[in-house]
Amino acid sequence: MDSTKTDVRVGFDFPIDHPRAQFLQAAVSNRDQSPPAVMNPSGVIYPGVETISAVERGKLDFGWINFCHLELLAPELRGLHAPFALKDKQMKTSEQRRDYLNTVNSALAHSPFQIAAVMRGADQVFCFENPLDLRESRFADLRIRVAGAGMYEEVVSALGATPAVASIVSAADLCTANGVDGAFTSPGAWSVLFRKHFRHVYLIENLMMITYVLLMRKEDLSTPWAQPVMQANHELVTENWETMRRQDLEIIDTMCTQTDGSFTCIEATDAELERLNEI
């Protein structure tokens, strides 16, 4: 073990009160680990794609990132989260989740990175300040916040809207400044951030299931200090996919019962499906 290493640095960029944060915190809370794992050391947040650079430069040893940012490292991965491509039933078992990780890591073979764990992000939802006009061109002329470039932008554009890329760190300012009409996000992020701006929520089921993945440097794979963190995140995050699915259902129940908002399941129109299938 590197005797000079005093901690193992793990980062994530979403709010600490986000429902998923409890799983990530649990994975670094092993008091017996030496050196200890520290979450977001010194309170520094590396939003979105900046986490990749932080891991590469050694500012972080592990970093949780929205899957969309992996498109920068391996463009061929974009298809894993194409419209209607990934569903809960495909991540139901440990074997399926292991296959998912193997697929991602095979695509990253040329890079200096490895994915150590996967977390269920969410079946993404749309949310707006005002009820959506559900006629044919319902998303036209709307500016919608998305978490990253690539597939997120393509999905929103295919629906006729204009995507506005903003990390979850900068999204609040964008909403406060009336820079967008709505957001394409997770139920968890809606509950702690977007709810105060956008109370009307719409779900096109399985339109885009997103994950978060735990990025690390390949050179650290066999180090004694990395192994406990990898194991803890496997057990407490990767293997809690179903718990996280139920967590989102509870949030959707909250959406359904809010008195000053709404929750509506909608289907993609034929015209929307045609454009989505071209992605």
Sum up the structure in keywords.
279 residues; alpha/beta; D-Maltodextrin-Binding Protein, domain 2; 2 domains; six-stranded mixed β-sheet; five-stranded mixed β-sheet; 9 helices; 11 strands; globular
Describe this structure in words.
- By secondary structure, this protein is of the alpha/beta class.
- It folds into two domains: about 10-120 and about 210-250, 3-Layer(aba) Sandwich (D-Maltodextrin-Binding Protein, domain 2); about 125-205 and about 260-275, 3-Layer(aba) Sandwich (D-Maltodextrin-Binding Protein, domain 2).
- The protein has nine helices and eleven strands.
- It has a six-stranded mixed beta sheet with strand order 7-6-8-5-9-11, sandwiched between helices.
- Strand 1, helix 1 and strand 2 form a beta-alpha-beta unit.
What's the short version?
By secondary structure, this protein is of the alpha/beta class.
Topology (elements, then pairings):
Elements: E1 8-11, H1 21-26, E2 37-39, H2 50-56, E3 62-66, H3 94-107, E4 113-123, E5 125-128, E6 143-146, H4 151-158, E7 162-165, H5 168-176, E8 182-185, H6 187-192, E9 200-203, E10 209-217, H7 226-236, H8 241-257, E11 262-265, H9 270-276
Parallel strand pairs: 1-2, 1-3, 6-7, 6-8, 9-11
Antiparallel strand pairs: 3-10, 4-10, 5-8, 5-9
N to C succession of SSEs = EHEHEHEEEHEHEHEEHHEH
**What general form does the structure show?**
globular
Q: Cα-atom Rg, whole angstroms?
A: 19 Å
The CATH superfamily of the largest domain is identified as Bacterial extracellular solute-binding protein, family 7
Number of domains: 2
CATH topology of the largest domain: D-Maltodextrin-Binding Protein, domain 2
What percentage of the residues does DSSP assign to strands (E)? 15-25%
- Class of secondary structure makeup: alpha/beta
Q: Main beta sheet: strand number and arrangement?
A: 6 strands, mixed
Low-confidence stretches: none
**What is the CA–CA distance across the termini?**
47 Å
Helical content class: 25-40%
Q: Tell how many strands the DSSP assignment holds.
A: 11
Main β-sheet, spatial strand arrangement: 7-6-8-5-9-11
* The CATH architecture of the largest domain: 3-Layer(aba) Sandwich
Q: Number of helical segments?
A: 9
The overall average pLDDT, rounded, is: 95
CATH class group of the largest domain: Alpha Beta
